[in-house]
Give the backbone structure.
Amino acid sequence: MAIPLVDLKAQYRSIKDEIDAAVRDVIESAAFIGGEQVSSFEAEFAGYCGVSHAIACGNGTDALEMALKVVGVGAGDEVIMPTMTFAATAEAVVACGARPVLVDSDPFTGLMDVSKVENAITAKSRALLPVHLYGNVVDMDPLMSIAARHGLPIVEDAAQAHGACYGEKRAGSLGTIAGFSFYPGKNLGAYGDAGAVTTNDDHLAAEVRLLRDHGRVGKYVHAKIGRNSRMDALQAAILRVKLRHLDRWNEARRQRAQWYDRELASAPVQRLGVKPNVEPVYHLYVVKVRCRDAVLKVLRERGISAGIHYPAPIHLQPAYEFLGYGVGSFPVAEEIAREALSLPMYPELAESQVCAISEALCSAIRGCQGTDAL
Ligand SMILES: *Cc1c(COP(=O)(O)O)cnc(C)c1O
């Protein structure tokens, strides 16, 4: 029996009637771009995140780029971000004409090591860009103190953290402004590309609204050089249906993470940690394993689709050689890149499957390295 990394077909089966009705309504209304579905989704998602504004857009990369632009990031500026993230985080910075200044990962959580941020600040720093990777949340209290001390805005990359909490507050409401992705495989995923920016700042929200729709203030009056990064009404209608199920799905992910924790308690693997004031949403369930590549191969042979997030940090990607870092620049992130293994994680995963995956993982580790694997 094959077990995928994520199972979007199982999710669709569980909400098919609601989705089909929502899609049919949009097609019958013939309002395909913007309109009531999009503005309703914006209001509902803002309410969900606990912010005053959500601005729907084309994808998560655009959301981050527009968020960076409206807080003032431009040519010659520096933006401080983790090296261990998906390439889109760095692309958004470079698209603004700015330079990513990278920091290493925290060995406990695998997220941006906040204790390394202050050292990275220079006169050119223009924003801090923490990434709530894996559905975990960056240690925001110390980061916000640093930001306040240096007068820097915080742009959250919340693309993997829909619904995750830091204390009482949700990801996307913690910094100055945030970018979300609704790529299909995310915890809240559209049936195509989509994204959103969230903020409590009225002025920044208005600026993002301008940018995403050709900078227009009237039908053919363009106040700014904007772009086309609008959300389809079909995606908005689908996201409105799925938002109603998000808390239940996130709770199911936490349950599956607990099952893995229990099954792997005595296994020679190290789980990436979560701090006590964080309620994570387990976009991914990541363990570190010494002989990762051999283990991954064995799991795949048994039909278990584990993943790697990510096999190379930004500073070792060919496109980012120009930043001037190299092997050894960020040893914690490099170790995660070598050892991280994302186990199948989705709300419909059965307990028996979690047990089978855990057993296969333990036996694969024993097979490749004896008990020396941690
Ligand atoms: C998915 C993702 C993005 C980009 O989102 P797209 O919608 O694919 O453009 C950005 N950052 C992180 C951490 C992501 O996982």
Remarks:
- The longest helix spans residues 233-263.
- Residues 59-61, 85-86, 88-89, 131, 157, 159-160, 181, 183, 193, 195 surround pyridoxal-5'-phosphate (CB under 6 Å).
- The first strand starts at residue 53 and ends at 57.
- The mean pLDDT is 96.
